[in-house]
Amino acid sequence: MTTAAEGMELTRTGPGTPMGELMRLYWMPALKSSELERDGPPVRFMLLGEKLIAFRDTSGNVGVMDHRCPHRGASLFLGRNEEGGIRCLYHGWKFDTSGQCIDMPSVPAHQDFKHKVCAKAYKAVERAGLVWVYLGAREAPPLPAFQILDAPEAEINVGMIQRDCNYLQAIEGEIDTAHFGYLHGGHADVSRLDETEPFYFTVTNRAPEFHIADAPWGTQYAGYRSAGQGRTYWRFANFLFPFWTQAPNGEFDSHAHARAWVPIDDDHCMYVFIWWKRARAANSLPQPAYKDGTPIGGTGRGNKLLPNTTDWRGRWRMADSEANDWGMDREAQRTNAIYSGIDGIHLQDQAITESMGPIVDHTFEHLGPSDQMITRTRRRLLIAARAHRDLGTLPPGVEDGSVYHGARSGYFVSDDQRAWQEVYKHRLAAAMHPSEEPARAAE
């Protein structure tokens, strides 16, 4: 059981907290590049409880800084993005993307001291259609070398959805494969399913067994079920420091992707999904269906979002939320048309994790064998955060981003009888890679 003190260590990510300081060692995906236009309005957002603004200057460079003007603390969100910098409305002080003050028009020329004033700014880079931000004090690390980042940008899709809960319970929903046969497929009629349908094995056996281990990037599990005739249905997945997951919701051989659960503050996180357009993943496959082509209810892929606003937490919000019980249809639930009564796999996950409250009370839990990946990941995070706080030990991926390159997730059926980690290595070696040419990948 996770104690109350351990729960606090794991979930608090503000400045000065062990987990918050660990998070600040890594680049964090914060915005879509498309959210910022040259000399366009700045964007409000939050990371790790800090209120920030982002803007794109005349030359196309991105600036990220504390929203407060270092003169009197007025919000630079209200400022004018013009001619190479953001200008505070209050007294006209202007700052470039590095935070350096470059103009003090309200100060007499002989008293000008702009060279001594800097806004609190953070490093920002763009990659894969995202703006990545580094909040740390030490030299910025390399970006994580996920396989998906090897793909040409034209072959990468990016999605973002805010979730109203702590980052950790969102991660734990991702690394819990046992819930799939109930929350998402509890209503599926096994007699109407073809074995080639990805739902088939998760609903014919709703009690998978697990292998769990630490990995160079964090933790890894292999959920497994018998597929008959000496075969095994595998679902491999990963937790990757500090807040990344790779879910088994696609065909392993092409499922290059990464999913971040970035802490906005302790009570909210931003889901950032980066995936390969050529992969056969959950978002690209047709909706799960029976042999006769009838869609399996409640398994839709679309996510209905509200229009973005300029609120601190006004970006990429789901249209359905706790306010309307996540769109639950009690009649669909009663008749078993949809086991949960909620239409949409992501929305089902969102409802469950948000229903726990902003931060789940870990002392209330009674964890079982299917929760081994959760307990292993909590322990891995705690040990890493304490080692960094007490000894200055850097956690995985900070100095060597290449550790992420060996991580892949997905499902497959195999008659390979070797140990599970050997099965994984063998399948990974044969998998499609995003750097491959399409013709080669199709062979």
Please give a quick description of this structure.
The protein is of the alpha+beta class. It contains ten helices and 18 strands. It has two domains: 27-134, Rieske [2Fe-2S] iron-sulphur domain (Rieske Iron-sulfur Protein), CATH 2.102.10; 147-441, no CATH class.
Structure description:
Helices cover 19% and strands 24% of the residues. Strand 12 (209-215) and strand 13 (218-228) form a beta hairpin. The chain contains 10 helices and 18 strands. Strands 11, 12, 13, 14, 15, 16, 17 and 18 form an 8-stranded antiparallel β-sheet that branches. The protein has a 6-stranded antiparallel β-sheet with strand order 1-10-9-4-3-2, with no helix packed on it. The protein is an alpha+beta fold. It has 2 domains: 27-134, Rieske [2Fe-2S] iron-sulphur domain (Rieske Iron-sulfur Protein, 3-layer Sandwich); 147-441, no CATH class. The relative contact order is 0.17. The protein has helices at residues 4-11, 18-23, 167-174, 180-184, 199-204, 330-334, 345-355, 372-391, 420-430, 438-441, and strands at residues 27-32, 43-47, 50-56, 62-66, 80-82, 85-87, 94-95, 101-103, 121-127, 130-134, 156-163, 209-215, 218-228, 231-240, 244-246, 257-265, 268-276, 410-414. The mean pLDDT is 95.
